[in-house]
Each structure stands twice: as structure tokens, then as C-alpha cells.
Write a structure and sequence with these properties.
Layout lengths: L1 H30 L18 H4 L7 H32 L5 H13 L2 H13 L9 H25 L3 H9 L4 H30 L2 H6 L6 H8 L6 H35 L1
Helix pairs in contact: 1-11, 3-6, 3-8, 3-10, 4-6, 6-8, 7-8, 8-11
Length: 269
């Protein structure tokens, strides 16, 4: 019995830890099907699908969700391109200030969000002729702190990258652009997709930095914070559950894609 306990202790601990982490999310999803008696969706009353059918019944929630998705997609696309190029520059090239650049990349990750948000607000307020607080200031702020996570993720893949594959392609007659397009980019694609998913999750979830720089624009987290003072409608749970389910589905699809790519690579070898 003691051997069995020692053999399975880590597995049981991991399962319990995952259950503990997932329990609040399970509660959020469960209460998205609740029909509350009052304005606050805290006590279970009865099961209903009306919340999912009429997810935009609460005034302003549709606009907030659309704004969050627009900011998240645009900021993720721009940050992914910039972060990938920065990672390539840091890992592949020697240049003056490389060490400083490497340190600066980590600063947004290590800086408290309230400091980052207040600093960006000060910057935008001192440039009122150029910036007006709203959609584009949120976009700029999100790109700035997402880039760090993109660089770190892609950089980790580049460090373990086998350069002999690129050299083999160039020995066979491919130029630099063809090698990058047909060898380097496909091999980096899983890391780039994973980095983009992480960046999108951080963007759509952010409240502190967004709140400082939003002006009159409302993203979904800002909307939830504002409405929570007077009510907590089940539609909030619906939107949160839908975002979580879609994110998990995309992440699982990325894992399957990476697994199949690895199997194809092994088969080719």
C-alpha cells in the first residue's frame, strides 16, 4: 500500500490542484444557466437556457464584448509580429545594445500593472494633441505589455532551434527568404501561435491598465467592474464562459496541430 501511495501521490496531487484551479471556472459556467431571483447572480434558483439565447439583453454588454474582441485581435496581431521580429533579432544577431534590449523586454512583465497603467496615462495626457483616451490608447497599451510575453515565448523556441535545417535548405539552393518562409517559419509556427493565444488571453482579460487608459471606452472587464456595483446579471457569466470555452478549444487545436506536425516530421525522417 505504501508503494502504491508513493507511486500515485504526485498524480493525485496534480489532479487535486487542477480541480482546485478549475472549480471557480466551473461555478462561473454553472451560474450562466441560473435564473436569479434578484439583480445578483449569487444564489442558485433554477436552470434556464434563456441567458445564452439572450446573452446581449443587458444594456452595453454587446458593445463591451465587441470592443474587447477588436482590441484583443488587433493588439495580438501587431504584438505577435513585433515580438517575433524582436526575438529573432535578440537570438540570431549581435548588435550594440543587445543586452539592454533583452532587459527592456522583460520590464513590462516585471512592472506592477498599476504602475504601468498610471505611467501610460501620464504619457497620453502629456500628448493630448496626438492621443485621445479611448480605443487607440487601449490598443497601444495592450501591444506594449503583450510584446514581452510574445518575445519570451518565441525566444524559448528559437534557442532550441536546429540551425542545421536552415543550412541544409540553403545548401539545396534556397535563398534567405525561401529558407525563412519554408523552413524557419513553419518550425516556429507552433510557438508563434502559442504566444499569440497567450497575448490574446492577456489582452481580453486585462482590467487595470485598460481602466487607466480607456477614457469613455468600455471593454468587457471594465464593463463588469462598473455593473457589479449595482447588479451581477447571468449574462456576464455567459460571456465569460463562452470566452473560456473558445480559448480552450483553440488551445487544444494548437496542441493537436503540434502533435501531428511532430509525427509528420518523425515520419519524414
Amino acid at each position: 500500500m505504501w508503494r502504491a501511495v508513493k507511486r500515485h501521490a504526485l498524480t493525485v496531487y496534480a489532479i487535486l490542484a487542477i480541480v482546485y484551479l478549475m472549480l471557480p471556472i466551473a461555478v462561473v459556467i454553472l451560474f450562466s444557466f441560473n435564473r436569479p431571483a434578484g439583480r445578483f447572480n449569487y444564489v442558485w434558483q433554477e436552470f434556464t437556457l434563456d441567458n445564452w439565447v439572450e446573452w446581449d439583453a443587458v444594456l452595453g454588454i454587446r458593445d463591451a464584448v465587441v470592443t474587447s474582441l477588436q482590441v484583443g485581435v488587433l493588439a495580438t496581431l501587431v504584438a505577435t509580429v513585433l515580438g517575433t521580429l524582436i526575438a529573432l533579432a535578440i537570438v540570431r544577431h549581435e548588435f550594440r545594445g543587445r543586452g539592454v534590449t533583452n532587459v527592456l523586454v522583460f520590464l513590462p512583465m516585471s512592472t506592477p500593472e498599476i504602475v504601468l497603467g498610471a505611467s501610460l496615462l501620464t504619457l497620453f495626457l502629456n500628448m493630448t494633441t496626438v492621443f485621445t483616451l479611448g480605443f487607440w490608447t487601449i490598443f497601444i497599451a495592450h501591444v506594449m505589455f503583450i510584446v514581452s510575453y510574445i518575445v519570451v515565448t518565441v525566444k524559448a523556441r528559437l534557442i532550441g532551434f536546429d540551425r542545421h535545417l536552415e543550412e541544409a535548405a540553403m545548401d539545396l539552393g534556397a535563398n534567405e527568404w525561401t529558407t525563412f518562409r519554408k523552413v524557419t517559419l513553419p518550425l516556429l509556427a507552433p510557438a508563434i501561435v502559442a504566444a499569440a493565444l497567450l497575448g490574446f488571453a492577456l489582452s481580453i482579460d486585462d482590467f487595470v491598465i485598460t481602466y487607466f487608459n480607456a477614457g469613455g471606452t468600455q471593454t468587457f472587464p471594465v464593463f463588469v467592474w462598473g455593473i457589479a456595483r449595482v447588479s451581477v446579471p447571468p449574462q456576464v457569466n455567459v460571456v465569460a464562459s463562452a470566452i473560456f470555452i473558445v480559448a480552450i478549444a483553440i488551445a487544444l487545436a494548437n496542441v493537436v496541430w503540434q502533435y501531428r506536425s511532430a509525427r509528420r516530421s518523425q515520419g519524414a525522417v
